[in-house]
């Protein structure tokens, strides 16, 4: 549980203020952003600095979006055997989720999770 708390604190420092976003703006941004083209690597050890996994994809996608004036937010999916990071945004009162490793946009959570924490 302390690992999750640590990750929550770290990511909360990287989040931009919540603002509504037009879905077309998000789609246009994702078409030009190259975060999803990076190579996934997870050593099996969560704090291995060589990792480039869901947390790093989420962090970099949000940072790139922020640099372009696009406000994306992070979501932490907690399941029985898994932890996964993703991205979400609000478009006219509707929540959309982005899988940062593939740029898939959905209007439902991307993982089977028992708890979602949106930042």
Task: Provide a descriptive summary of the structure in words.
A hairpin with a 2-residue loop joins strand 2 and strand 3. The protein is an alpha+beta fold. It has a single domain (2-118), classed as Beta Polymerase, domain 2, CATH 3.30.460. The longest helix is centred in the middle third of the chain and has 14 residues, at 54-67. It is built from three helices and five strands; from the N terminus they run αααβββββ. Helix content is 29%, strand content 24%.
Summarize this structure as a short list of keywords or feature phrases.
single chain, 119 residues, alpha+beta, Beta Polymerase, domain 2, five-stranded antiparallel β-sheet, 3 helices, 5 strands, globular
How many domains, as an integer? 1
Shape: globular
Oligomer status: single chain
Number of strands: 5
How much beta, percentage-wise? 15-25%
What's the helix count? Answer: 3
- The radius of gyration computed from the alpha-carbon positions, rounded to a whole number of angstroms, is 14 Å
Helix share bin: 25-40%
The CATH class assignment is Alpha Beta
